[in-house]
Design brief:
Layout (H helix, E strand, L loop, with lengths): L1 H11 L2 H30 L5 H17 L1
C-alpha cells in the first residue's frame, strides 16, 4: 500500500498536479503519434515524395542550363 500512497501523494493529491500530468502526457502522446505516423507514411511512400525525386529534377535543370 505504501507505493500507491506515495504515488497518490506525489501526483494526484492536488488538482494542479493532475492538470500538469495531463498536459505533459498529452504532449508526449501527440509527439509519439506524430513521429510514428510520419515514419510510416514516409516508409510506405519511399521514392514517391518530393524530397526523394527532387535531385532528379535538379540534374535535368542543370543540364538544360549548360546547353
Amino acid at each position: 500500500m505504501s507505493l500507491t500512497k506515495t504515488v497518490y501523494n506525489l501526483f494526484f493529491r492536488r488538482s494542479a498536479s493532475i492538470a500538469v500530468i495531463t498536459v505533459v502526457g498529452v504532449f508526449g502522446y501527440e509527439r509519439a503519434i506524430n513521429k510514428t505516423s510520419t515514419y510510416l507514411f514516409e516508409s510506405h511512400n519511399q521514392g514517391k515524395l518530393w524530397k526523394h525525386v527532387q535531385p532528379q529534377f535538379n540534374l535535368k535543370k542543370e543540364d538544360e542550363e549548360d546547353s
